[in-house]
Write a structure and sequence with these properties.
With 103 residues, the chain is an alpha+beta fold. It is built from one helix and nine strands; from the N terminus they run αβββββββββ. The chain has a single domain, classed as Cupredoxins -  blue copper proteins (Immunoglobulin-like), CATH 2.60.40. The two termini are 30 Å apart. It binds copper (II) ion (CU).
């Protein structure tokens, strides 16, 4: 019985801990320069410009490349590793933001 309670409280805390964030690409900028989140959280990168963006990161903490996608589309990245993740756009070198993933 005690074992079951432990498992269910673990599941509940795990489910509640994960958060969803949205970062927009607008006017060839990210809507935030820096965001802090917990490992397990997800960021949705939404393109709100009329042009394509290609969001990617070459960071050691987490590498990803979302490819280029048009206005209205959103692609998600789940961050599992603590550390800083530098996020850029392959099409617009001025676009830059940092995601700080906490334990
Ligand atoms: Cu771009």
């Amino acid at each position: 019985m005690r074992f079951l309670i432990l498992i269910s409280s673990f599941l509940i805390s795990t489910l509640c801990a994960a958060q969803e964030y949205e970062v927009e690409q607008k006017n060839k900028m990210f809507s935030v320069k820096e965001i802090t989140l917990k490992k397990g959280d997800t960021v949705h990168f939404k393109n709100s410009d009329k042009i394509f963006h290609n969001v990617f990161s070459l960071s050691d903490t987490q590498f990803f490349d979302l490819g280029s996608y048009p206005k209205g589309e959103s692609r998600a990245v789940k961050f599992e590793t603590p550390g800083k993740v530098e996020v850029e756009c392959a099409i617009h070198p001025q676009m830059y933001m940092v995601i700080d993933v906490k334990e």
